[in-house]
Amino acid sequence: MPHVVRFVENTITFPYVRSLGPVTGAFMTALTDKRILGIRNGDAVLCPPMEWDPATGAELPHDLVEVGPAGTVESWTWVPEPTLQHPLDHPFAFAFIRLDGASTPLLYAVDAGSPDAMSEGMRVAPRWKGERIGHLTDIVAFVPGEEPEVDGEDLGPASEPVELMDYLASITYRNPVPPTSDLVVEASREHRLVGFLCPECGKTYIGGRGVCPIDSLEFGAEHAIDLPHTGTLTNHVVITPVPYPGQTETEPFGRVFIALDGSDATLGYQPIVDMSVDDIRVGMRMKAVWAPADEAVEDGGGMGGAYGALIGWTPSGEPDVDDPDLVNRIF
Amino acid sequence: MAISDDIAVVGWAQTPMVRHTDLSEVQLLLRVITDAIEPLGLTRADIDFTCLGSCDYITGQAFSFVGNLDAIGAWPPKRDSHVEMDGAWALYEAWLRLQEGDIDIAVVTGSGRSSTGDPALIYPMEMDPYFLAPIGADPVTFAALQARAAIKAGIADERAMAEVAVRARGKGEVDELLKGDYVREPLRRHDLPPITDGAAAMVLARGDRARELVERPAYITGFDHRTECHNPSFRALDDSPSTRIAAEAAGLGKAPVELAELQAAFTHEELLLRSVLGLSDEVKVNPSGGALKENPIMASGLCRIGYAADHIFGGGNRALAHSTSGPCLQQNLICILEGRS
Amino acid sequence: MIPAAVVGVGQTHHKSKRRDVSFGGLVREAVFRALDDAQMTMADIDAVIIGKAPDLFEGVMKPELYLSDALGAVGKPMFRVHTAGSVGGTTGIVAASHVQTGKHTTVLAVAFEKQSEGNAQFALGSGKGASLGAGGSFAPFIRSYIHRSGAPEHIGWKVAVKDRQNALKNPYAHLKLQDISIEKVKESPMMWEPIRFLESCPSSDGACALVITDEDGGKAAAAAGRPPAWILGTSSRSEPPAFPGRDPVRPQACLTCAEDVYAQAGITRPREQIDMAELYVPFSWHEPMWLESHHLADEGEGWKLTDAGETEITGSMPINCSGGVLSSNPIGASGLLRFAEAALQVRGMAGEHQVEGCRTALGMAYGANSQYFSMWVVANSLQPFG
């Protein structure tokens, strides 16, 4: 039966914090005061304001001027199905809005209700959030008309200049799991450690790597070989964890390298099980530790690591191998 | 020292271009590199320089391109580089490298899978971080605004755009298509590119080596790329000045081209680029179907160069290929290929 | 090939968080310093080559697009390279190539990282828990080096002290550890056993820019009393991440890359003919390791050079007089900073951290799991060996 490729979803989320610099900072601060700023560029006024002249890259003096609040729609397009990142969650128009006094248009949402209400040349004004933090979305949207509006209670301008901006980036990816990875993960459920033997160079590749990088040969099931579950600890690292979004560790944790018995394959960055980081020694005899058959398994990391039902390695109880040079066996 | 025009594309290959691939990027690259070099009787050991074009954000993993090294045969260690750009720019780097005169064969790739994530959510991240990314300003919105500008300037209209779509895909009826709903007025579904997964690899060779490998190398006689300012608010969207400058610097004006492969992901872009490049009606534009038919992100531009090279391999004399990056054609690359008698 | 020269060098004041500047502001700071040094303006630049490490660090995808106008690149070619940690080096090499091939007369090479906007450990682990971090990947290599060479444990501490003391002489360096000492390093927290906190690079925001021009431009600068750094050779090599038997301690890609760049520069005795080197040393033990794989010391002997003080500014093989990556590490820029510092040395413009009489210098960067290598050799003349 042909292998059906499995897909895994992976969401990378991070709360970036951006420093705005003097010009964008002034713009964002002014937003909290329900003012929109542009910057002079010779005879022109740029809005959104930039630190540099877009045409030449020359530094612009910080000659900020108020523009708008109302403006004219120069062009627009209707968004019938907004994305999660869009400023409104119901259909709206993205429009180039030339605020009064500005030479360039600002791109923003116009909450017109329907595309029939949109036209080039129409007048729009900002509808402000009552609570403003110094972010472009302090403007809820522009609305048809001349007069700005405020949503709810107007809590007034920021008490301090705004210098930073939050940006939560979250993208979800669906990536295929290469058949070789799946084969290895599947085998791990049966507590089998499977590698791939390259018919050209004779090297064994472990950890689900689907390619021999020396011969540029793609592995298939026909190259799979079962490997012993025992090996010798060669090298290691003990990592003191640092905090970051998504961090799972709080105590120093070990990652060891296992030279598998009777093979040129070395499994790198393997977790240790039922063992203290203080007990790690080169030459220790180790055996694989498997998750119970019915337990859900993960796919393993990109830089080595355990995978599938292979949880890690634990001392086998045999006497150490006396060969300090084993530490050189990393790959 | 003048730039040499004795460096040629001698072959290329692409993976099947599909809506959604089961293959990983490494698998795609492994196969397509083999497919590009094998017909030339080359092995990976013969490759002097590799340059890969790919984008971490499309793949969803920092350093994703490092794994791609497994596909190029980097043992013994290779002269190798990587650009976070379409393979067309990887070709540019390789072309420059071969100009140095000490090596003869380069392979470049472009790879990416756009089915992995939602372009509407990923592409805003390449926009101005303060004014555009935070409002999710997406590429179709920008394309629509440029389409409007092109229509206003008389360079495009919805009917002409639909005709481009029909020609590109070799199917459909203009009147039927025009009945469809707008996705982003004035753009309808048919005006937008497909989601395509795929990769391409191309072989570049210098001088006598090129002539040893194939009978009719496609010589690169002009190669240039230019950028514009980023924020579409500051640009005249009914024009593409960087395309014009790049084309001039690449020597488009020196002689007519028979064929032009333009990386126009949206129908109006093809009309706008045609107009900016001043292509006469005799020029065959996008006979491959272009990016409207298959749009493998980070390889789309390289494929344009590949199809242009095919025209030369098949006996044609002079062809133009174009690649682009960024919102509303912000950055543009022009490659001119010629055959010799 | 047309001889190319560095005629302008600029860098930012590297800090853990440059919150005083915007994204564009950070890069422009380095760019304007480089242009001023070259006595040029953006109008003199024909093309811009920009490099940085993964965009995941800042959450701005393809930043060359946003930065096009910030870098004065409108109407010009703008090119973005990315070769992991070696990217700064690759940026310099690709930029030089634009001039050496005759495609352009004067180009700007820029590399930067504003990584405080994100989190480097997060990005290195692609957002997953239990990230190894960079140190976690290299610790086993270092352990192997220590065993193979028989190096005593204090070598790593010595390098850590030397580089931070050098940094005190570099106005742009990030870490200014006035009271750095062997004791302090030895007692600092263990991070990735055996690598301690003070043996590790910081996380920095920073940018670096170089102006590279052709032979005529280099000669004109020299005639005007602004000596250029002539680029005698450039080289890059990559090797795969892993295969049984791979040696990441003495990587073949590094050995071959160094041999190539020396051959181009006419160097047959690197230990004597190279007057100083800026090597990418993010963890102290990389110094002895790289000395060996750059043929600046015999195999197993690199640590002896360090131990004898030969890699100090006043030593016979000065390494990282700028303070190196151990003192400033805006990841995308670090490679270009090595190339830039090498250029400053042969131009006699390294100020307090200048190596006296420096004619030739090697700049090196590496990336990923010691897989990507980029190097250049610069000199104060086109024929430094007569």
Give a verbal description of the structure.
The complex is a heterotrimer of chains A (331), B (341) and C (386). By secondary structure, chain A is mainly beta. Chain A has two domains: 8-171, no CATH class; 178-328, no CATH class. Chain A has helices at 21-32, 179-189, and strands at 6-19, 36-41, 44-46, 64-67, 71-79, 92-99, 106-110, 123-129, 139-144, 149-151, 164-177, 193-197, 204-205, 211-212, 217-218, 224-227, 230-239, 253-260, 266-271, 285-290, 310-315. Chain A is elongated, with a radius of gyration of 30 Å. Chain B folds into two domains: 1-116 and 195-341, Thiolase/Chalcone synthase (Peroxisomal Thiolase, Chain A, domain 1); 119-191, no CATH class. Helices cover 33% and strands 21% of the residues of chain B. A ten-stranded mixed β-sheet of chain B has the order 3-2-4-7-1-8-12-11-9-10, with helices on both faces. A two-stranded antiparallel ribbon of chain B has the order 5-6. In chain B, strand 9 (259-261), helix 11 (267-277) and strand 10 form a beta-alpha-beta unit. In chain B, helix 7 (158-169) packs across helix 11 (267-277). Chain C is built from 14 helices and eleven strands. A nine-stranded mixed β-sheet of chain C has the order 3-2-4-7-1-8-11-10-9. In chain C, strands 5-6 form a two-stranded antiparallel ribbon. Classes of the chains: A mainly beta (331), B alpha/beta (341), C alpha/beta (386). Chains in contact: A-B, A-C, B-C. Chains B and C meet through helix 3, strand 3, helix 4, strand 8 and helix 10 of B and helix 2, strand 3, helix 3, strand 8 and helix 9 of C. Strand 17 of chain A pairs antiparallel with strand 5 (190-193) of chain C, so a sheet runs across the interface.
